[in-house]
Design a protein that fits this description.
InterPro entries: AB_hydrolase, AB_hydrolase_1, AB_hydrolase_fold, OmpR/PhoB-type_DNA-bd, Sig_transdc_resp-reg_C-effctor, WH-like_DNA-bd_sf. With about 400 residues, the protein is an alpha/beta fold. It is built from 13 helices and 16 strands. The chain folds into two domains: about 5-105, Arc Repressor Mutant, subunit A (Orthogonal Bundle), CATH 1.10.10; about 115-400, Alpha/Beta hydrolase fold, catalytic domain (Rossmann fold, 3-Layer(aba) Sandwich). It is about 40% helix and about 20% strand. It has a nine-stranded mixed beta sheet, sandwiched between helices. The chain has a five-stranded antiparallel beta sheet with strand order 4-3-2-1-7, covered by helices on one side. The relative contact order is 0.09.
């Protein structure tokens, strides 16, 4: 059997050949620095003391701490890290060091393991695993935090690892995982789930949610749907009323843009939106992607739009992006929303540019035991520094507390 291969960022460490690759190219690293890197990766679940590293990597040879400092600096440079950034190897003052980048491990020539650990600057740790849908599509899901569960349905677009450090999404993870166990996943076609899948339909998305629920072993739980994830959450809640205790819909809609178009002007706008998406994504046109970002974050800064655009590019292929948008436009759960039997909270930005607040009002009218709260924002995805964000979290906390 071959040795272990540890993959993180753009690097691969092959233990059998004692070789480090970056972007597929060999990187020359001083052997002792490679020993230190390997030891930290293999014990990434904890802080490793200086004494342990010296003992394990230098053995009986006496060296000063300066030798360890040099080896750590060399290892960081080799993997594109630095003492200032500490994205990969973090110094824990007076305790030692910890490897904090997400790691995917496999045996040379074998299959990858199903668990990836990610630790953030605050020390919170999430676990990423895989489950397999009935048609063979592999779905990546992540758990973070402790306490009662909260499951978030997938939405446009997700990457359970990259979200951890994304300015667009990281505050969502920390806010929703406070005093709770947050479970979320990447829908088929994007993120860490399979991109090349046999089928790509709304029913598949509901099936994927069902697969994640079974893999995690959830019994009865609150379910959060954001944007088009709200429609998926509604369909699941109707299919499994015994499992969903409470439903939260944020920036969601019952009918996609093509379905809800009621006149020639709206139909033309919906068609144009898709045409622009096909051309813009196929060409990876920066001007289109920036305009698209401003629809999600109209109150954002140029840095916010750049971060959102970069995140989109890294989460799926141009072909899948178009498939997603085409499928979103055809969503229609208006005929089943009235069958949702659990208490439901509908949250929406009052001046949402991407999905108008009229869609939230429609959801609240369709779902029997529902309440509507409009937030003072224009952003489809709430940002960390706007007043609506803590208000959003308070609404969710209060709503969930009622059912606990």
């Amino acid at each position: 059997m071959g040795g272990e291969v540890y993959r993180f960022d753009d690097c691969e460490l092959h233990t059998s050949s004692f070789q480090l690759l970056r972007d597929g190219q060999p990187v020359h690293v001083e052997p002792r620095a490679l020993d230190v890197l390997r030891h930290l990766i293999e014990h990434r679940d904890r802080v490793v003391s200086k004494e342990e590293i010296l003992d394990q990597c230098w053995g009986d040879t006496y060296v000063s701490e300066a030798a360890l400092t040099t080896a750590l600096r060399t290892a960081r440079i080799a993997v594109g890290d630095s003492g200032a950034e500490q994205r990969v190897i973090r110094t824990i003052q007076r305790r030692g060091y910890r490897f904090v980048a997400a790691v995917e491990a496999r045996v040379d020539g074998g299959v990858r393991q199903t668990t990836v650990e990610r630790v953030d600057a605050a020390g919170a740790s999430q676990s990423i695993r895989y489950c397999t849908a009935a048609d063979g599509a592999r779905i990546a899901y992540a758990t973070v935090g402790d306490g009662p569960p909260l499951l978030k349905a997938a939405n446009w677009m997700t990457h359970v690892d990259l979200e951890w450090s994304s300015p667009v999404w990281s505050h969502w993870l920390h806010g929703l995982a406070r005093d709770r166990r947050l479970i979320r996943y990447d829908e088929r076609g994007c993120g860490m789930s399979d991109w090349d899948v046999p089928s790509f339909t709304f029913d598949d998305w509901v099936d994927d949610l069902e697969t994640v629920v079974d893999a995690v072993g959830l019994d009865r739980f609150p379910l959060l749907g954001v944007s088009q994830g709200g429609a998926v959450a509604i369909a699941y809640a109707v299919r499994h009323p015994e499992r969903v205790s409470r439903l939260i819909l944020a920036g969601s809609y019952a009918r996609g843009r093509q379905v809800r178009a009621s006149n020639d002007h709206e139909r033309a706008e919906a068609a144009l939106d898709l045409d622009l998406a096909r051309v813009g994504w196929a060409r990876q046109d920066p001007s289109f992607l920036r305009v698209f970002a401003t629809q999600f974050l109209p109150d954002g800064t140029s840095d916010d739009w750049a971060d959102f655009t970069d995140f989109q590019r890294r989460t799926t292929s141009p072909e899948n992006a178009v498939r997603f948008l085409e499928a979103f436009a055809r969503i229609d759960v208006s005929d089943i929303a009235g069958s949702v039997s659990c208490p439901t909270l509908v949250l929406h930005a009052r001046d949402d540019v991407r999905v108008p607040a009229s869609q939230a009002k429609e959801l609240a009218a369709l779902i029997p035991d529902s309440r509507l709260a409009l937030l003072d924002s224009s952003n489809h995805l709430l940002s960390a520094d706007e007043p609506a964000w803590p208000e959003f979290l308070r609404f969710i906390d209060d709503f969930l507390a009622e059912g606990e």
